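Forum > Structural Biology > Help requests

Title: Can anyone predict the 3D structure of HNH endonuclease?

Hi all, first post here. I have the sequence for HNH endonuclease but no way to get a structure on my laptop. I'd be grateful if someone could post the structure tokens.
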Amino acid sequence: MTFQTLLQALSGSALDTLAGFDRRAALDAGLDPARVRAWAGLYDVYFAPTHSRQKQRQAAEKARRRGFSLDQLALIERRLKPVKSARTRAKLRLQLLDAQGDYQALARLAKRLVPGKKKPRRSQVRFSRSRDGKRTMTVTADERDLADLEHAVSREIDPSKPAAPQMLKAFLDLMRGDGTGVPRAVPRPLLLIPLPEWTKIIRGDGDETILGLTDGTTVTGAEFLQRYATEEYGLEAATFHPKEGAVNLYRTKRLANQKQRDLVRATQTVCPVPDCRCAADMCEIHHVKAWSRGGETNLDNLAVLCRYHNRMNDDDPAHPRRGRIEIIDGAPVWRSPRGYAVANEHHPYGAMQTLFT
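Reply #1:
Sure, ran it for you. Structure tokens for HNH endonuclease below:
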């Protein structure tokens, strides 16, 4: 196929190429799912059964006569999507199919005829995921409040230097204050030990396990647990089985509910739904087999889930709609509605990945 042949297939009488549209075949061919969805929508508009065959026929005739490309036809349907009335959509579609010019000319006309619905801006604070050790915070609030903040962080700027870094420093000074401002988050130190090595240590063979420290020295497993984990830093030692997951948490005070939460958070450091960046410390504890369906509060039935995904999880595995969490080889994994297990690679430092992958 030449480039000219490709252009003819996507423009001119391109509409008729969708007559035999097959969504599954298009996806299997490696096409962009967004493009496949757009083509599926065009097929429904121009070829699927409808109550208004006359309007459908008129629209198809105009699309062919004007030589609209598939991208132009998809643009029309995107702009018409918010219109609730099918009759109004059909009327506007015929008007847009009378347009002349290229894609941009059609986009301008569509914007005039079908203005997008303006969404009200919500007051909120959002944090991006970490990249190269940095994060971005976005604040949407009352303009007067942010005007006060802008004044506070910019009033002592040196005009001979870039303003943004100076405003950031002033903002952080305001945030920290004189020690009474925002406290620093203190990560919880937790020592992760594969079960076979822990067995050696508690059996009295801890000298066989050598641990390297960041100061360039080494200690045996027994020495580390005795000195650092209990005497100096108050670290806790958690053990994990390569298939069963979290086994136990050894600490001086035994609080069963808190112990389970600690182990579940160590097993998966973020919400396990793909691309979710919500940290385990900010997640809720989720019953993989729902409590209402007989699920127990045991380690092999618990996972961390952010507030949103905890409510979106499919508790009934027989009727999947949005996917659900399962325990696979001791770790929580999201399974899609179509049955695919997909791991969250955003922060791959959970105990099971760290110890056994």
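Confidence is low (pLDDT under 50) at residues 250-256. The chain has 14 helices and twelve strands.
Shout if anything looks off.
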